[in-house]
Amino acid sequence: METSTKSGFDSIIKVFIVLSTVVFGLAIVPLLWMVPMTIRVFKRIDERETFGVGFSVCCLLFVSVVAGIAMFLRDSEYGYPVRTDKKNSLSHQQHYVSAKKKTGLATKKKTRETRKWLCMPYGIFLILFIILPILLIFYYAFSDPTTGLITLKNFKSVFEGDSSVTTFKVIGQSLGVAALTTVICILIAYPIAYILANSKWNKNIVLVYLFLLPMWINFVIRTIATKQLLIFFGLDPALHPWVCSIIGMVYNYLPFAILPLYNTMLKLDKSQIEAAADLGASPVQVFFKTIVPMTIPGIVSAATMTFMPTMSSYVITDALSGRTIKLIGGQIEHQFLHSQLNVGSVYAIIMLALIGLSVIFENFFSEKKKGAR
Amino acid sequence: MEKELVMNAPNMEMEETNRSLQRKEKREKAKKAVALTFVWIMLLVMYLPIMYLILYSFTDANVIGKWQGFNLDCYSTLFNPKNAFAQQIWEAAWNTLWVAIVASTLSTVLGTAGAIGMHFLGKKFKAVFNFANEIPIVNAEIVMALSLVILFAWLKLPTSAFSLIIGHMVLTIPFVVINVQPKLEQMDPSLYEAAMDLGASRSGALFKVMIPDLLPGIFSGFMISMTLSLDDFVITEFTKPSEGMDFQTVSTYVQGTLAKGAIPIQIRSFTTIIFVLIVAVMIGYTIVNNRKAKKI
Fold first, then answer.
1. Which region among A46-60, A61-75, A82-96 has the lowest average model confidence (pLDDT)?
2. DSSP annotation of A7
């Protein structure tokens, strides 16, 4: 095996694969598989390895026809056995290893390396559809819709004069609704989770499922049903916007609060609670001194699970407050419906700032907990 | 506190301990009853809106509180292919379903591959990936939705089925990754290497050794993806196809009809059928699970 010699096809493959990646890459999506494949091709060439039939076919079909054919030719030139017969795969494997003159350790390291590349498509997806769009929000917020030049116009239209009053009102209402919903959700979910997780009282997991089941019914339909039911009970959303909105929010987000609390309660250290009781602590002391501190991680994640999505659940407040309570999410939708993406971006940045603050808040609490340990 | 403890050393007579034990038992029973009553009352409250929908699916009254006699109008019109509302509802249902299936399947494949790759990355890159993966979970759905709309506007592309699928993938992929990751941590790394040493090809080792180990995580990731995708409103509203035919999923359809006025009565029978299906699946799942548990 003359593995050390260079093949004439190497440069042909490299040129064509880069060319087609660049050309088709303009359509953005093909980058998802083209970039990882190109990198792999380059690595294989540099390491003087064969490509294998499957990989060559994929290149031929999805990246570049010329490069794919050249890859086949290069493989046959190298004279490696093309693995088609499964029965002989063992001998081929040995053949490979001896041909490469690599130790077992090196092979192991290499398999680790190749498995790494599995995350490439996801990495590109993250960059294209999650990170790039968020950067674009910042660009749009600071640029003029028609000329594309950098300007503070959009911020001015949100924070100047009369509009600033409505903006701060919207932010205040969003935070108010979110905070109230979170507190009420945790107050209701905490005892439920405690009872469900306590094996003395409940041994049946079905009861837990029952609390989660309404999540599978479309939430818009559930919200409308809630609205009609509230009217039936004499609570008109137009007259009691706050009460109705909070009921709707709590109803929708309660399962999200129960689940993390239930999971932490399952792991509660029973002996610690019993020890506290045996050592003479009153039930109230037991609750506040042992149970609550042990469940702080659950409380924090339940709070984040309810607080953050609440601010954007404008569908619920729209339906249950007669459109008197406006959330930041609703403002973003309003701008979107009027094709004002630049002003919408400003609201999105406000939202991002609020989310950033609550993440810092959450981290602060979980860090504190870790420090206490 | 500690001094008290020493003083409190048990020094009681047998009879008294017996009586106190009985009392304790009684108190425990009362506690249990109170606790379970509370849970059941909460459940009842949570199911009230759904029960209202089910009850009123057997009458054609338009407003709640006005029972207009038992009839099956909601059902007969829902299954009448000539009824305009029924057509719209079934079309929306079909759209919701195919979008959820396509997006969840793609998310599961991409997310599983991503999670496996991330597992073998160096510490720094792994941290970067984990951070990026957290963004859509922490971020508000509406910000993600707007950012995708802006991306497509920036590329001068109209929103289409493609942007809708991408939107749902952004929503669901992180959950696939965080469901697969713990299974990867639990996995025995020597198994994969043993398979390789015994002559399995890379893909063989991946599909025959690693994937079966990860299957529970992959499955729960897929199920969560389906749940999120089926129930989604915000991302769908923003990224749904803007050109050509009026594209609606169940969420956007119901919201749209609500904005116009009352929602069609067929929604009630439709929801009832969905609810019955979900309950049936749940019961089946629990029975199968119990049987499995008994076998083991």
1. A82-96
2. P
pLDDT digits (tens, 9 = 90+) for B203-240: 777 777 788 888 889 999 999 999 899 989 999 999 98
Residue B116 Cα to chain centre, angstroms: 23
In a 10 Å sphere around its CB, with 0-12 CB exposed, 13-18 middle and 19+ buried, how is residue B254 labelled? buried
- CATH superfamily membership of A156-372: MetI-like (1.10.3720.10)
Distance from C-alpha of A286 to C-alpha of A275, rounded to nearest angstrom: 9
Would you list the domain boundaries of chain A?
9-116, 124-152, 156-372
Q: Strand (E) positions, chain B?
A: none
Interatomic CA distance for residues A86 and B208, integer angstroms: 15
Establish if A111 touches chain B: CB-CB under 8 angstroms.
yes
Which residues on chain A are in Cβ contact (under 8 Å) with B34?
none
φ/ψ of A143, rounded to 5, equals: -125, 160
Residue A143 in this model has a pLDDT that exceeds 50: yes
Q: Pick from A54, A213, A309: which is nearest to B278 by CB?
A: A213
Beta strand residue intervals within A194-306, DSSP E: none
Identify the pLDDT of residue A3. Answer: 44
Other Cβ atoms within 10 Å of A76 Cβ, number: 12
DSSP state of A28: S
d(CA A267, CA A286): 17
Q: How many residues does chain B have?
A: 296
Show the tokens assigned to B31.
């506690």
Residue A328 burial (CB < 10 Å; 0-12/13-18/19+)? buried
Q: Give B91-98 contacts, CB < 8 A, sequence gap 24+.
A: B91/B248, B92/B248, B92/B249, B92/B250, B92/B252, B92/B253, B93/B250, B93/B270, B95/B247, B95/B248, B95/B249, B96/B230, B96/B249, B96/B250, B96/B251, B97/B230
Please determine, for residue B67, whether its predicted confidence score (pLDDT) is greater than 90.
no
The ipTM is 0.81
B203 contacts in A (CB within 8 Å)?
Answer: 54
Amino acid at A137: I
Residue in the block written with tokens 């916007």: A241
Phi, psi at B45, each rounded to 5°: -60, -40
Distance CA B74, CA B60 (A): 6
B202 and A130 within 8 Å at the Cβ level: the answer is no
Quick one: pLDDT band at residue A367, thresholds 50, 70, 90? low
Q: How confident is the model at residue A99 (pLDDT cuts 50, 70, 90)?
A: very low
Cβ neighbours for A328, distance < 8 A, ≥ 6 positions apart: A170, A171, A174, A311, A312, A347, A350, A351, A354
Query: Would the CB atoms of A136 and B46 count as touching at under 8 Å?
Result: no
What tokens appear for B229 in the block?
């995708």
Chosen CATH of B84-278 out of 1.10.3720.10, 1.10.150.120, 3.40.50.10240, 2.160.10.10: 1.10.3720.10
